Amino acid sequence: MQITSNFNISDTDFALRADKIEKRFGNVDVLRGISLEAKRGDVISLIGASGSGKSTFLRCLNFLEVPTAGTVTIRGGAYEASDALSRSRANKNKLRELRREVGMVFQSFNLWPHMTAAENVMEGPVQVLKESPKVARSRALDLLARVGLAERADYRPSQLSGGQQQRVAIARALAMNPDVLLFDEPTSALDPELVGEVLAVMSDLAKEGRTMLIVTHEIGFARDVSSKMLFLRKGLVEEEGPPRSLIESPKSEELHRFLARMRH
Ligand code: ADP
Ligand code: MG
């Protein structure tokens, strides 16, 4: 696919661009052409009703799900479906690079239950980046300290609260030095009293200038941390712009109704 619009990967501000991402499951068009561009340090929030395609879109950005059509471009290059469908070694390496550059934090944490917090954080650096266990552990301890878990490095997930597990998952994502971090409803599985500690860590990352795409139902948080907000509906971007404009003066009836539902 030819990328026609005027952007340049060598632009130092460029982080990630999605170009007309489509995804079809069977005969259902779940994503019908979603585009967005993130500059370095952008925090982009994605909101929308359940089933609107938010998770599928995030998963397409690092090819956990292979888009049916469209292109994802990061600083390392452009990716399209053919890169994932060919099983050549070059293409496998290319996809591995995409997944390293575009990290993901899931709703359900997805930590290894048999490993301690530190071992979970070290796993990618040791297995994928081929770091020595000693260096990887030392970095893991630093990262755990950054998310407020210095004292919990040698605990297993079952010995940690949901909020602590999610902070381990964030440290694990950071350990791969990604250029862009994706968050898929990172606080939806948490008890209400644990949501704040995870949002606080995410706010710190935003302040540090991390490029982040966040699917969330925490509208107040999204308004405060994000530079841009997209409202997805039925696999399309229904409305986008500065978070305050969307939240305070939604243009579409659907966004208006969605926000009214969120307030109850
Ligand atoms: P959201 O995250 O906004 O709730 P999803 O991206 O999870 O939405 O799902 C969008 C639609 O795609 C839903 O109708 C869902 O049932 C469908 N879908 C998601 N993943 C698959 C899959 N692997 N196979 C078939 N349908 C799927
Ligand atoms: Mg989802």
Q: Return the average pLDDT rounded to an integer.
A: 94
Number of domains: 1
CATH structural fold name: Rossmann fold
The H-level CATH homologous superfamily, spelled out, is P-loop containing nucleotide triphosphate hydrolases
Percent of residues in β-strands: 15-25%
CATH architecture designation: 3-Layer(aba) Sandwich
End-to-end Cα distance, whole Å, is 44 Å
* Count of strand segments: 10
- SSE order: EEEHEEHHEHHHEHEHEEHH
User: Any low-confidence stretches, pLDDT <50, length ≥5?
Assistant: none
Global Rg: 18 Å
CATH class: Alpha Beta
Largest sheet: 6 strands, mixed
Named once each, the bound ligands are: adenosine-5'-diphosphate, magnesium ion
Class computed from helices, strands and strand pairing: alpha/beta
Q: Count helical runs.
A: 10
Kindly report the spatial arrangement of strands forming the biggest sheet. Answer: 6-7-8-3-9-10
Shape assignment: globular
Helix content range: 25-40%
Summarize the structure in short.
With about 260 residues, the protein is of the alpha/beta class.
How would you describe this protein?
It is a single chain. The protein has helices at residues 54-61, 81-85, 89-101, 117-127, 133-146, 162-175, 192-207, 219-225, 243-248, 253-262, and strands at residues 14-25, 28-39, 43-47, 69-74, 77-80, 102-105, 180-184, 211-215, 228-233, 236-241. Helix 4 packs across helix 5 (133-146), helix 4 runs parallel beside helix 6 (162-175) and helix 5 (133-146) packs across helix 6 (162-175). The protein has one domain (3-263): P-loop containing nucleotide triphosphate hydrolases (Rossmann fold). The chain has a six-stranded mixed beta sheet, with helices on both faces. The protein is globular, with a radius of gyration of 18 Å. A hairpin with a 2-residue loop joins strand 4 (69-74) and strand 5 (77-80). It has ten helices and ten strands. The protein binds adenosine-5'-diphosphate and magnesium ion. Residues 25, 30, 48, 50-56 line the site of adenosine-5'-diphosphate.
